[in-house]
Amino acid sequence: MVAQAGREARARTLALNYRLAPEHPFPAALDDALTGYRFLLASGIAPARIALAGESAGGGLALATALSLREVGLPLPGCLWLSSPWVDLALTGPSMESKAAVDPLLSRAYLSELAGLYLNGADARGPLVSPINADLTGLPPTLIQVGSAETLLDDSVRLAAVAGIADVAVDLEIWPHMIHAWHLFYQEVADGQLSLAHAGSFIREHLYPKI
Q1: Most buried residue, 19, 37, 58, 128, by most Cβ within 10 Å?
Q2: CATH architecture, domain defined by 2-207
Q3: Residue 198 catalytic?
Q4: Among this protein's residues, is 180 annotated catalytic?
Q5: What is the rounded distance in angstroms from the CA atom of residue 26 to the CA atom of residue 46?
Q6: Annotated catalytic residue within 8, 68, 95, 180
Q7: How many angstroms separate the CA atoms of 123 and 190, rounded?
Q8: With DSSP H G I counted as helix, E B as strand and the rest as coil, what are the percentages for the chain, rounded to 5?
């Protein structure tokens, strides 16, 4: 999927094998993401030519990475692409219940277990683990893609509102009947292929604008 997204964006891709909980809880993954971004800058890649992307928990991590970059004064990427992002580890979104019957992958109980392993005592509402609670001012243009059949639907809907309030240019795409991380099935699901094409177009538009 990462390679296909790169083809659609006409860009090289770098997939980070960041450390995972429970062996490596917060902030290990965030530290690794920041290390990866610094590697790109040190390699001579202009930040305006970098699209920072993540799916599911990786979507929240990508957003937390951008927030951390802003806080330490490093240049921000040209755009963000967040696919089915999990940005509220306190699980307060109404779709946790309203979409429970149609989401075949993610339940409140399962997500609660994962959140506990990742947090390892950290505050579930902290802005670097639940960036829906952060001030997003100054972040780059952001594409959010989410399926309508996800318990995480409201994470995306509320995140788009938070971004808009902070004057971030945000595109929210809600894909009817799609389940969590449907992009992974792009070879079998037409909307998976199409959603990657949309993401590629968004990335090209912001990294290589026409002059």
Answers
A1: 37
A2: 3-Layer(aba) Sandwich (3.40)
A3: no
A4: yes
A5: 28
A6: 180
A7: 39
A8: 45, 10, 45
Q: What is the pLDDT along the chain (211 residues), one digit of tens a residue?
A: 999 999 999 999 999 999 999 999 999 999 999 999 999 999 999 999 999 999 999 999 999 999 999 999 999 999 999 999 999 999 999 999 999 999 999 999 999 999 999 999 999 999 999 999 999 999 999 999 999 999 999 999 999 999 999 999 999 999 999 999 999 999 999 999 999 999 999 999 999 987 4
- Residue type at 189 in one-letter notation: V
Each domain of the chain, given as residue ranges in start order, spans 2-207
Does the predicted model carry a pTM greater than 0.70? yes
Closest C-alpha among 206, 66, 65 to residue 141: 206
The backbone torsions φ and ψ at residue 181, rounded to the nearest 5 degrees and listed phi first, read 60, 35
Cis (ω within 30 of 0) for the bond into 27? yes
User: Which member of 68, 84, 130, 150 is catalytic?
Assistant: 150
Q: How many angstroms separate the CA atoms of 190 and 52, rounded?
A: 24
